[in-house]
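Provenance

Sequences were taken from public entries as deposited. Structures were produced by running a predictor on each sequence independently, with no templates supplied. The record for VOC domain-containing protein from Setaria viridis is shown for reference.
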Amino acid sequence: MGEECKEAAGGAGAGRAAVEGPVDPVDSAKLYEDVPPMPLMALNHISRLCKSVDDSVRFYVKALGFVLIHRPPALDFSGAWLFNYGVGIHLVQRDDARRAPDVSPAGELDPMDNHISFQCEDMGMMERRLREMRIRYMKRTINEEEGSPIDQLFFKDPDGFMIEICNCENLELVPAGALGRLRLPRDRHNPPVRMVDGGGGE
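Predicted structure for VOC domain-containing protein:
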């Protein structure tokens, strides 16, 4: 069990954004004034508590093409690691000590709900796969009026966690006052980024 650092939770900066008012992307340079360059590289993995690790492994392998990989022997609890597309999914078996709010896989498909999103290069193929597996999904297209339509598919895994599939690379990312702070991994797909600051530039 790791050591918990409780001091940081209430230390300097905790809740600061909540007391300084809304963030304005047009005047966002001051947002970064006391933020040092961070040594982060990329998203490594997400972790999910599961009712059945086996069911979730089958879902992520068969529906999304993830690959099962070996976990370190030091992890002495029931779970599984999956990896593909430059990101890992770590599954942990739920028990009395590890609980998560129940989310119904049959519940409403709400794009505003918490979810993870995967960039897709063939939305038609992905939709056919969902149909083959009889996975209930929602389909929609946004941003058509702006000339950069984004197709989206929303569905849930066996534990009710929302997943999105999209062709979001049609949407250019415009930095708001932090162009020099962006770190784009060179060995994986990145969305298009406007290399001229979109407001509040440094």
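The radius of gyration is 20 Å.
The helical segments are 16-19, 53-64, 123-132.
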